Amino acid sequence: MSDAETPPETEFDPVAPNTGEEFEPVDVFPDSDDFDLRPGADSCFKCSTCDTNCPVAEVDDDFPGPKFQGPEQWRLKQSDDDHEIDDSVMDCSNCMRCDNACPSGVPLSQMHNTARGEYVSEQMDKLSVEYIRNRILANYRTSAFFASKVPRLANFAMNFGPARWVMEKTLGVTSERDFPEFAKQTFREWWADRGGQVKSRENAKAARKRRGLPEDADKKVAYFHGCYSNYNTPEVGKAMVRVYEEFGYEVVAPEQKCSGTPMFANGMLDDARRHAETNVSSMSELVDEGYHAIASCTSCSMALRQEYPELFDIDGIDKVAENTFEAVEYLRIHEDLKGEVQAADVDGDLAEEFAYHAPCHSRNQGLDRQAVELFRDLDGAEVEDVGDSCSGISGTYGWKEEKYEKSMEIGEEMFEHMEHAEGETGMTECPTCAMQMEHGSGYEIRHPLELLEAALVE
Amino acid sequence: MAIESEVLVIGGGLGGLTSALAAAREGADVRLVSYKQSTLRQASGLVDVLGYTPDGDGPLTDPYEAIPSLPEAHPYRKVGVQTVRDALSLFDDAVPTYEGEHTDTNALLPTHGGSIKPTARYPAGASAGLASDTRDTLLVGIEEMVDFDAPHVAAHLDATGVPFDVRGETIRFPGDLRADAKVTRYAKLLDTNSEVAVRGRMVPAREALAQRVNPLLEDEERVGFPAILGDDNPGAIRDALGDHLGVDVFEVPMGPPSLPGLRLEDALFSALDEAGASIETGNPVVDFDGEDRIEKVFIEKNGAKIPNSADQYVLATGGFVGKGVESDREGVYEPVFDCHIPHASDRYDWFEGELFGDHEFARYGVATDDDLRPLDASEHSEFENLRAAGSVLGGYDFAAEKSGSGVSIATGYAAGQRAAQEAR
């Protein structure tokens, strides 16, 4: 039975129509400001297709899978006020593959994020090592901010054996992985040195002239570089700027914080909200001025597009979601990118065969085949897909000491395919997938924007 | 600007995949867009052409022979018998791991409910299980998998009068799996042949599974498992189990989520990739521009409308289950282009009182001309550059006839090929 209190008295006969004029629908669940994901839970017809997409359930016998974490947990909550969130929600890696699977559009990852947030804020011990460790991992931007002030020292200290041993023993951060190197000059430092928006406007104008476009063409984008392109791989951010300018776009790099991706995955919704407020406020002002928000990391674009409007109610949030795009996707929509790539060729250090891995977070955005298809006809470089498995790291998941082995087991399929691929250089859009690819194969990992820059920019 | 192609196929099920494949092999620049992952994950993986006539006669021995006497509105009548044959040849070529192409005669396959299903093509993994084979059979169920109760299935099969003895046994799957382990968990263990703990000793999963079955095997010559035997390497797993047990091993297709469906999805997507098509899943087509011709369609991503344009379009969005056909209290409609769907105006005429009655809704879908162009209420084509394929089509009841896959493949093939020819 549903939890409608008393069914109205009727002489219901499933064959004879009896819902004529006397039928009065009853509003069983009144409006509420709390999360109400019941409509989504009700759309689930238990086909379990989501479960076939879960990389964790495939290797972890403690994890009951997305169908349980999502619709089933929500039904339990709905009917039982004392229902506590099952602690297995912390084993979900937030890959969000289940979203792309559901034929009924059940908002699975929204349910997981919400349940995890509730678990962390109401059930988790704030003094526990796990909480402190997760909080530190989720707030990568803070650590990166300080480390980038002293990159050489940080690169040494973060991978200093004894220190890592202590980190594993006291905090549960695996010592198996190498911390990513911090760049000597961040993207934002480079951007400011180069002359910022003014310089970009000049470059864009010159490119429009070269291309025979009207000089005042309304081509402008706001770059959401995220933490990783800023602190660790500024070459990706530089490639984004140069490629966009080549097509005649003026780029701005507005004030921004972490997209929130690692915070969602650790149930730190208050932290995520604080960062989201800054991001939404600076992006929505620019959207009003005719800018589109462009991200080079598929998890950042995913957060701005999907997780923000699903989880937060911030002024301008829907407008930002509607106007956010992944960097290559935007050019595919607005430029003849395919034609230009076909006419181009690559030489130098990017004339390579790449073993490409599509990040899980690119899937819901329909971008998992973009790089492979775009570079099919590029002379001088090959991009080979290494299969549709998850890399296994899922941001902070693979950094946790107790998850490390599961993470490597999930990644095994990708490592094997990388080994069998022609090339010995990897490619992906996602910074943490890149860490896992490098960790498992020893290959150097590049971003599609870098190849695009090599093909299209002088 | 828009994302451009010559042929745009909307829908990633069997109809859409075949359509895109046929168009790509015809030389067209093809793009396939699908709201979510393919509905093949919910399909058994068997490829039926026609098992029963609309009057319920059957199982049919030769489905091709019966096609010319189907009602005129039936999709097979629109494309003709030869197209059905050509389409299946394309399928056979694209999915070499399937069997059944050696004959026009329907094969009889046991289902996980213990009934017998007439089908035209089946995965190699099911072939040792044919019901026409006279070898005695042991079915092995897994205790935790409640949707395959082997003794029950065996009793049902026996009651259908199969020409062999069949018995069912239930085992615990080796290793400490959770009670509701996913089919992919079993498949992954067997694919990687990872070690599992059996009485304190680590044993490779395939060997451990065979050890559980061995003592239960009497003089049966074949053993059937629910379809959990691997995702990437099902052939190697069957061979390994067969070697350990000294008999042939087969899989019984299961309900959703279905590994045979998933493997078929993978095979068709890689054929499509090899043919050079573009593929995008994850977001729905919600709107279009155009009057007599479709100029472009829009894919919705979190409020953004991404334009996609093509010369020719194929609508392969599925039926009620795939949500290519929808209904509410007012009527039955096709949500993307609002193509006309003929249906009774009183919704109480859509269905019959009996559960397995001859429901009209089962045949609801778009009506088309012989070129598969959807027709409006006055029987004119809705758009000159739109064709429909698969279960968005009306005029047939795939569940009763066992014709779902065949209609999707045949109409997908015809729509894709004609779209490609016209795009040039």
TrEMBL record, chain A:
Alphabetized InterPro entries for the sequence:
4Fe4S_Fe-S-bd (IPR017896), 4Fe4S_Fe_S_CS (IPR017900), Cys_rich_dom (IPR004017), G3P_DH_GlpC_su (IPR017753), Helical_ferredxn (IPR009051)
Q: Which key words are in the record?
A: 4Fe-4S, Iron, Iron-sulfur, Metal-binding, Repeat
Annotated 4Fe-4S ferredoxin-type domain residues: 81-114
Q: Where is this region: Disordered?
A: 1-32
- Give the GO terms filed under biological process for this record: anaerobic respiration
GO function term, MF aspect, one: 4 iron, 4 sulfur cluster binding
Show the ranges annotated as biased composition (Acidic residues): 1-12, 21-32
Q: Which GO terms describe its cellular component?
A: glycerol-3-phosphate dehydrogenase (FAD) complex; membrane
Please give the NCBIfam families that the UniProt record associates with this protein: glycerol3P_GlpC, PRK11168.1
Q: What is the protein named? A: Glycerol 3-phosphate dehydrogenase (Quinone) subunit C
Q: Which organism is it from?
A: Haloarcula quadrata
Automatic annotation (TrEMBL), chain B:
Entry keyword set: Flavoprotein, FMN, Oxidoreductase
Query: Boundaries of each FAD-dependent oxidoreductase 2 FAD-binding domain copy?
Result: 7-407
List the residue ranges forming a coiled coil, or say none. none
Which is one Gene Ontology cellular component term of this protein?
glycerol-3-phosphate dehydrogenase (FAD) complex
Pfam families named in the record:
FAD_binding_2 (PF00890)
Name the domain of life.
Archaea
The protein's matches in InterPro entries, at most eight in alphabetical order, are given as:
FAD-dep_OxRdtase_2_FAD-bd, FAD-oxidoreductase_2, FAD/NAD-bd_sf, G3P_DH_GlpB_su
Picking any one GO molecular function of the record gives: glycerol-3-phosphate dehydrogenase (quinone) activity
Protein's name according to its UniProt entry = Glycerol 3-phosphate dehydrogenase (Quinone) subunit B
Organism whose genome encodes this protein: Haloarcula quadrata
Lineage, please?
A: Archaea, Methanobacteriati, Methanobacteriota, Stenosarchaea group, Halobacteria
